[in-house]
Amino acid sequence: MIKAVLTGHSKGLGLGIAQSLLARGYPVLGLSRSIHAELQKQFPTLLQQLPVDLAEHAALQELLVGEALPEFMANATQLLLINNAGLVSPIGPLSVQPASDISRSMQLNVTTPLVLSAHITQLLKVDQQLRVLHVSSGAGRSAYPGWSVYCASKAALDMHAQATQLDKLEQVRICSLAPGVIDTDMQAQILDTDEALFPNKKRFEELKSTQQLSSPKQTGERLVDYLLSPKFGSLAVDDLRSH
After folding, report:
1. Active-site residue (options: 26, 144, 150, 226)
2. C-alpha–C-alpha distance, residues 82 and 99, integer Å
3. Any residues with CB less than 8 A from the CB of 239 and at least 6 apart, and which?
């Protein structure tokens, strides 16, 4: 049985991923600050939701010592961990970056994916396989002004996947995947940002106005196809747009 643990499942790309997995009959444990009531009604037996703010260290630690993860994993033969939750803030140069925003972003974008990957690997039974997918970004591979924290966090995921692949764990496959530019709340936040803080804002405005942003649902479908493919994990770092 295939089961999926998905962070940030209640909106944006995470919701698209959740919908795709559930529609295919795979149980999902969604970890997010909010629950999605409509999705729960649609998939009452397949969806389990745990409200948790993974940008808070204490909340992550509470999750690790609880029974939700081991109980969900108990009867799975293959587990999927999709580290999707992320923050783009703070946007701007060092001179305007609040320490609290830096800490929350690095906790959610880096610490949580790395900790969950290690924790779930350590919970695996001998007959269980794990596929870890980090939702990365082109920003982890190309620097953008105003995005020093976001770029650094996504680059960390890419390097984590590459180093983990070198460990050659028999039960684990991993990939840090850039999904492309998607029409989500994160894009809305970018478009609301002062151009002085994010000089590349015009590029994203053009993508929006020319309808070049992909939909969360469509991207979620393609991402799940990629995750379930026999070739998953052959590349530690990849871009969904090349498939």
Report:
1. 150
2. 27
3. 138, 177, 178, 180
Q: How many CA atoms lie within 13 A of 229 on its CB side?
A: 17
Q: Per the confidence metrics, is the pTM higher than 0.85?
A: yes
Dihedral (CA of 71, 135, 169, 65) sign: negative
Distance, CA of 49 to CA of 181 (rounded, Å): 27
Please say if 144 is a catalytic residue.
no
The count of C-alpha atoms lying within 13 angstroms of the C-alpha of 222, restricted to the half-sphere facing its C-beta, is 18
155 contacts 141 by C-beta, under 8 angstroms: yes
pLDDT tens digits for range 10-39:
999 999 999 999 999 999 999 999 999 999
Tokens encoding 137: 């970004």
Give the number of other Cβ atoms within 10 Å of residue 192's Cβ. 9
User: What is d(CA 201, CA 194) in angstroms, rounded to the nearest whole number?
Assistant: 8
Q: Are 200 and 150 in contact (CB under 8 A)?
A: no
